[in-house]
Amino acid sequence: MACIRSKYSNDSSEDLYGITRPPPEIHHKTIIQIYTDWANHYLEKARCKRHIQDLQVDVTDGVILSDVVEAVTNQKVPDVIRKPKNSSQMLDNIHSCLVFLAGLGVSLEGITARDIRDGHLKSILSLFFQLSRYKQQQKQQDRDRHNLQKQSAEMQQTGIKTVGPKHAQESSKLLPPFNKHAGNTSIPIPANASTPKKTPQEKGKSALGIGNGPHAFPCGKGV
Predict the structure, then answer these.
(1) The domain at 2-7+27-142 falls in which architecture?
(2) For the whole model, what pTM was predicted?
(3) Which of these, 76, 94, 193, 210, could form a disulfide with 205 (CB 3.0-4.6 Å)?
């Protein structure tokens, strides 16, 4: 659902009219003013010097139209001639805008560059309606993405607080109990491991400080 902002409203929100087509009860000039205000709102946000005074006339060179498209989509329209010298260059500007919008998935059925250039009000209003609809869809996607990220972050925090300690406790239960050997080594051995009896020769080596027992490991290797 597209939303259009109007200066005639006391509503503080940016978008006012949720419409699928211009309501018949609204006067034709009011509809034009609504779309004009909506476009100028984004031109102001983008700090564009030019604003639309006459919607039916000002967009026909394609320059201010490209400004509106860029302000709404936050993307650059390529191949726009900023100072068109003839009708052909103006038509090319409008064509560039339409090609760019079509690439974004904006519906342009029944809208032609020639109609915009010739100032056909129906085509101009249809174009701005589709552009406003695209903007509203982008806003909804941004909100959904933000909510999803927020939920994901909350789930991760909850997992750290609840699942984390529980997992650590369960992991500790899986480890067998360890005892320290009576010798000089600090490497623990399982409590159920039987200590082999030393032969008289091994006892003699132990007395000399030779590590010949089960805790003498090659370099870089250990338990």
Answers:
(1) Orthogonal Bundle (1.10)
(2) 0.60
(3) 210
